[in-house]
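Issue 218. Parser rejects a valid record. Input:
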Amino acid sequence: MPEGGLPSVFRERVTFPGEGRLRGLESERSAAPVDPVTGLPSRAVLADALSEATLRSSTVGRRSALVILAVLNLREISEVFGFAVGDQVLAALAVRLKAGLRGDVKLLRHGGAEFALVVAGLSGRDEAESIAASLLRLAREPLEIGRWSIHLSVCAAVTLSSRRYGDHEQFAKAAASALTRARELGHGSLVLEDADRRGDDLPQVDEHMVRVAVDEQQFTLAYQPVVDPASGEVRGAEALLRWRLDDGREVPTSVFLPILEKSGMIIDLTAWQLMQVAGAAAEIRRSHPQVDCPVIFVNVGPQQLTHARLPEVVEAACVEHSPPPRSVCLDITERALRLRPRSMWDTFRRVRDLGVSLALDDFGVGTSSFEFLRDQDVDYVQISRFFARGLGDGGMDDVVVRHLVEAALEIGLVPVVEGVERESQARWLAEIGCPLAQGYLWGEAMSLEELRRKIDPAWTPPEDGFAHPADLA
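Output the parser choked on:
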């Protein structure tokens, strides 16, 4: 890939057979609607652009693609800096993206905080994925808007043309579905949808397979360390769900979680997950009494928080394993709070009475966060990874994170900054007195055995093998 732009396939104009058939369409589009904010063609031309790109590509045995880039934090930017700045961000990003494009491509405003790129003449999946990755790279560079250096949180989805799509509407619908998965995965994610090779890419699972996986405990947990940024010592971990099929392919959470929630099985998996985490916390305390008691965070969504059985399954895990007080922490997302937050308050109080901690995830980017902190007895606030990218650079991220950390500490909460990837970020956090941080700097999600080695490097597993928390009494 060349420096500073998209792949070389876009550096030259490609001539396609049959262009005469398309001149009428191009003439009609010369007066196409223009988005007033970005100056780009609006979504009204998407159908024609897809039809044209697919025709151009099919005449030479190639494929077209629809790439959609989404700005995930535009609402927060507009709320903090004003909606005029939000529009300036979109306009500046449009200029940057358009400047990087060459060749047979069409950039347009897809609506809201989304841009669409229609590409013709692709050789295949690798080239399409390379284009989308380039768009992400361009969008992730800070935008200078007035006196602010603004970092964007972005994701992208690329969908390749296929004979399985009967028309451009099915093509666009597949692209929208792929973008939904990318949004669920969050900042920096890239989802590739290729209907011609769907079976080779994303595992196809149904409710029966998920039910069997729950019943047979096919799910596992991986633990990403939470550390003291000053010393690098492990102070806890986030327990992340994993599901690997017999053929070795891992099923993304964006695939199996919606099935679990829709079917009602999510509370059964939550019960299993809490049992594992409580057992792990108890065993770490028994085996490593010399280290500070770590806290293990467990993500819970709207379905779990509104389920009548949640206090019951929390109590069962605590009674079974007797973990140290506050060593198990329910990680509450902003999405969960937007769904009838007041109806959840009794549940929050009940689980806290059982000795479980509460954490608010993605703190600083939502609209309900401060109300929740005011009304609830929360222990941790996890500051969104969105603010981590520019830490230590002297920009707006430094100002925001410093104030959030200081505010949390002042009211007696423990802040955890997520998304730390560089030593310079860790040093800056240590300098401002932030007690906890999490990110790839200290490792990806790992097995419980690996986590215990990080907590206590002198620890070795038992000679007869590592004891699984579910087998501990």
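Fixed in the parser; the record now loads. Confidence is low (pLDDT under 50) at residues 1-31, 464-473.
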